[in-house]
Amino acid sequence: QVNLVESGGGLVQAGGSLRLSCAASGFTFSTLSGTWYRQPPGKEREWVAHIGSGGTTSYSDSVKGRFTISRDNAKNMMYLQMNLLKPEATAIYSCRFINTWGQGTQVTVSS
Questions:
Q1: What pairing do the DSSP bridges indicate for beta strands 34-39 and 10-13?
Q2: pLDDT tens digits, residue range 41-65?
Q3: Nearest Cα to 12, choosing from 91, 68, 65?
Q4: 8 burial class (0-12, 13-18, 19+ CB within 10 angstroms)?
Q5: Could you write out the three-class secondary structure of the chain?
Q6: Mean pLDDT across the stretch 27-42?
Q7: How far apart are CA 36 and CA 33, in angstroms?
Q8: What is the mean pLDDT of residues 33-42?
Q9: Exposure of 7 in the CB half-sphere (CA atoms within 13 A)
């Protein structure tokens, strides 16, 4: 059974940093690509960043240059390092592998 658990969210001032983690279990982690999404309050969920099984990364234009997605296959973990955070980054952040989502972690950026 695929299980994903996000952590690392919180309240941070604009310009600050947070590192989100996604702990995965129930599948062969190293063989699959993973994705971070976010859902701002009152808005649709949007794609943030993607990492392939081989480590290839891609980012939405809104976070490119400030966010870094990474993975540790030995630990079955995926990360999202978020720097220079802006208030518009306030959202619930979720990770996804295959067709399974985690429960999400809240990120709030104050101005």
A1: unpaired
A2: 999 999 999 999 999 999 999 999 9
A3: 91
A4: middle
A5: CCEEEEECCEEEECCCCEEEEEEEECCCHHHCCEEEEEECCCCCCEEEEEECCCCCEEECCCCCCCEEEEEECCCCEEEEEECCCCHHHCEEEEEEECCEECCCEEEEEEC
A6: 97
A7: 11
A8: 98
A9: 4
Contact 49, 60 (CB under 8 A): yes
Residue with tokens 């190293």: 30
Asked whether the beta carbons of 19 and 79 are under 8 A apart, the reply is: yes
Nearest to 25 by CA among 93, 90, 87, 78: 78
Q: What is the pLDDT of residues 77-110, one digit of tens each?
A: 999 999 999 999 999 999 999 889 999 999 999 9
